[in-house]
Fold this sequence. Notes:
Blueprint lengths: L1 H34 L9 E2 L2 E2 L43 H9 L4 E8 L12 E3 L12 E2 H11 L8 E7 L7 H15 L20 H4 L3 E5 L7
Parallel strand pairs: 3-6, 6-7
Antiparallel strand pairs: 1-2, 3-4, 4-5
Amino acid sequence: FYLFLCAIPLILVIVLFILSVYKHYQARPDQCNAVFDVQLNPSYQVELNPVPTMFWNTYFTPKKHTELLLRDFWIASSYRSYQPCGGTNDVTSYKTIQNVLEKGARAIHLDIWSSTPDDFFDPSAEPIVRNKGLMGFVGKALDLEECCRVIADQAWNGNKFPLLLYLEFHEPAGKNKYLLAKVAKILYQYFSPRLLPPQYGFSRIPVGTIPIRLAMGKIIFLTNEYPLQS
């Protein structure tokens, strides 16, 4: 009984601590919502709504710009967006690309290979999407056109945020002019209404300096090969 009486103060301290923690977490939703009400500059608007400061990339100090640029935002990105599990010896899936977009990714990465990897000049070569190490028996390459169809159908479903599509070409895909022409035709077929004005093409300006108001609802292509063909 004496030990129980001595333990009462300790029990009270534990109860008070639990109550204080509970009240703290109960108040957190209001605190989190308050973040969206903070504006460093009232002129920072996207679609006439304030830009949540939690999405700002402060490395470039956006307060110095007259308008927000693409580089002023953190961008949710996906590496090898066509693979559901890992980076090597994996399967490929159109559904994975759709899932990545549904989860909010705004930068998609596709590896582009040639269907005839031993010939740099084969006019019949088709652009395919795969990793260098596909899983045996079940690992199959994807068709670039179908990948683009999935992206076009899903990327702006319910939002107007810009999309970055990084096409990483692997030899001989990046050197085969016939294959590159097919890639260009596919991209234009599915994304022509979402292209930026011509002055932003061919690396004329740094991608990060594109005004966000112009990039809304648009697609930006990035590659590891300079497009020598028009």
